[in-house]
Amino acid sequence: MLFPLGWFLGWWAAAPWVLFGLGVEITYPYQTHSLIFIQGVLTTFAAGFLFTMFPRRLGAPAPSVVQLLVVIVVPLLHTVLVWMQQIGLAQLIWLVEGLVLLEFSASRGLGKKGTRSGPAAFVWVPIGFLCGCIGSGSEAYRELMSAQFPFEWYRFSRVLLTQGMFLSLAMGIGAMFIPLTARKEASVDVTMAEKPRLRRMGHVLGAAGLLMGFWLDATSLRPLGGYLAAGSVAAVLLVSARIYRLPSMGGTQRRLIWISSWCMPLGLLLASLLPERPQIGFHVLMIGGLLLLTLSVALHVGLAHTQGQELVHRPLPAVRTFGGLLLLALSVRIFAEYAMVDRFEYLAIAAGCILFALVAWGLLLMPRFVRSWRGLTW
């Protein structure tokens, strides 16, 4: 249910730039676009993946009906409120979902609810939702109480929400999922590996490096902070996910997942190398990294869980179309930063490419999801 909901919210997130580029009189969509994508689209896909994977991988309890209702209802309310420019209320409502996902991931990934420990990288998952809750809570307080924060804290808390949350989730899940999908390399539970405390401490230090990089980037040491954040992400992905190795399994989505894993540290690096055009690095991170990773992982999991196991090994035209359109959207968005005129038209084209990518994704998966709902029970 959550993957189709995320797909539906993706239309809400991309449509504002298309409408704005066509001259429709709407509020400037910068904040609308980014918040719906991050807290609506990406969070909904993440919840669907975690609610499925954590109970199976860890032998832990499934989400309760209340938890399911929260992650289904809150994204819809949040999207409507953001569209109405009620940002403070939207953040306050989303904070409920963030806390639910924080409790779910911490109690199962770090607590004793599960019969297995899971890989060491799972410590990143509750760290990610904690980042989201801090950023969302700060935004809600600032908007609703008209509070004035120091500029450094405003930048830091904002980055925790817009980048820190999903980078942390990508580190935690990617260390397990990228090797599994790319090369069929399974991750062992940390309690079964050598030096389990050292392995967990390595990931905690990686998270500390990422967060310290964000803090330095929010202060006067801006280029240094970006380099530290990029280095921390690259180190985790190189050591734990082994992204230096090419995919060896068939299936276009596996190569898209591999490409997205390189776009994450690259985006952080470009934001520091090109400080006069920070949106280039940000969109390499968000479109080429997090959005491409999220939708490709959802596509792979969606096929595997809807009697499409044989399709995950094939170079499907629909998957190539989807991936090509997202990468085209990224290319057009980068070009827009150098366009002297008609910049908003290029932004509308980039958003349109994302919408068409969602069409290709939906045509492949939505009929399968609808068929899987027959006989659905709570």
Give the key terms.
378 residues, mainly alpha, 76% helix, 0% strand, globular
Architecture overview:
The protein is mainly α. The protein has 3 domains: 1-116, no CATH class; 118-128 and 136-245, no CATH class; 251-370. Helices cover 76% and strands 0% of the residues. The protein has helices at 2-21, 30-58, 65-83, 87-109, 124-145, 151-183, 196-218, 222-241, 252-273, 278-304, 317-336, 343-372. Helix 6 (151-183) crosses helix 7 (196-218). The termini are close together.
Rg (CA only)? 20 Å
Give the percentage of residues in beta strands: under 5%
Low-confidence stretches: none
Q: What gap, in angstroms, lies between the N and C termini?
A: 12 Å
Secondary-structure-based class equals mainly alpha
Query: Count of DSSP helices?
Result: 12
- Shape estimate: globular
Main sheet overview: none
The tally of domains stands at 3
Count of DSSP strands: 0
The pLDDT mean sits at 89
Helix and strand topology:
Layout: H1 2-21, H2 30-58, H3 65-83, H4 87-109, H5 124-145, H6 151-183, H7 196-218, H8 222-241, H9 252-273, H10 278-304, H11 317-336, H12 343-372
Helix pairs in contact: 1-2, 1-3, 1-12, 2-3, 2-4, 2-6, 2-10, 3-4, 4-5, 5-6, 6-7, 6-8, 6-9, 6-10, 7-8, 8-9, 9-10, 10-11, 10-12, 11-12
